[in-house]
Amino acid sequence: DGGITQSPKYLFRKEGQNVTLSCEQNLNHDAMYWYRQDPGQGLRLIYYSQIVNDFQKGDIAEGYSVSREKKESFPLTVTSAQKNPTAFYLCATSGTGIFYGYTFGSGTRLTVV
Amino acid sequence: GEDVEQSLFLSVREGDSSVINCTYTDSSSTYLYWYKQEPGAGLQLLTYIFSNMDMKQDQRLTVLLNKKDKHLSLRIADTQTGDSAIYFCAERQGRKLIWGLGTSLAVNP
Questions:
Q1: CB neighbourhood size of B49 (10 A)
Q2: A residues 4-63 closer than 8 Å to B (CB)
Q3: Strand B55-58 and strand B61-66: pairing?
Q4: Are B45 and A102 within 8 A, CB to CB?
Q5: Is there a contact between A13 and A111 (Cβ–Cβ < 8 Å)?
């Protein structure tokens, strides 16, 4: 089945550590996105990539980094510079289908301990 | 501005209809979407409508679009406890989706 796989589902980070969240897709979609979700704040865009080897900052990119070396993969690194990383992180893709909607992964919940 | 606005909470009784409202901003032709998010999960596309349509129906879901007022609504008929979730409205602007904050729907037995 085609889809998006985010891993791990739960992740715990100590203060000062970098952690990497995985997002893999087999939908053959060109565009990929990372969102952060906090209670009552909806979805906030961190980074997005519309093509391999290219990505752009979203609204809250500070303290995060990404890479897009393969079409299928768009990992997100939460660096120690991100002061409040505890949140639910969602990866999404978008193809060139007739309605240009997004397809979402199941999310990773990151907690700082 | 580019805000998409939704009310934050809605509570209904099981078996009643739910109506979730959204206002958007872009007056040009675009797609508008409704997504559902269950606790601890990703977002699932429920339905979409193109801005040249007034209504779209899909089983228990009815989407109404008032282009003059830039108002979008999602009606869920015969609401069930399994419909309890957060519902997001989104508007396509160019290659981006602009999201509302989500409406949390509580279904009471």
A1: 20
A2: 4, 6, 31, 40-43, 50
A3: antiparallel
A4: yes
A5: yes
Q: Tell me the CB-side half-sphere exposure of residue B61, using CA atoms within 13 A.
A: 18
Interface residue ranges in chain B relative to chain A, Cβ cutoff 8 Å = 8, 31, 33, 35, 40-45, 48, 50, 88, 92, 95, 97, 99-102
At B19, list the tokens. 């109506």
Q: What is the pLDDT of residues A51-64, one digit of tens each?
A: 999 999 999 999 99
| pLDDT for the residue A29 | 92
Q: How far apart are CA A75 and CA A84, in angstroms?
A: 19
Rounded Cα distance between A78 and A51, Å, is 22
Burial class, B58, CB count within 10 angstroms (exposed 0-12 / middle 13-18 / buried 19+): exposed
Q: Which chain B residue has its CA at the smallest distance from A41's CA?
A: B101
At A38, the amino acid letter reads D
* Number of CB pairs, chain A paired with chain B, less than 8 A apart: 46
- The DSSP call for residue A70 is B
Cβ–Cβ < 8 Å for A71, A30: yes
Q: What is the pLDDT of residue B28?
A: 76
Residue B52: the pLDDT is 87
**For the segment A83-103, what is each residue's pLDDT rounded down to a tens digit?**
899 999 999 999 876 666 899
Half-sphere exposure for B57 (CA within 13 Å, toward CB): 3
Structure tokens at B83: 């419909």
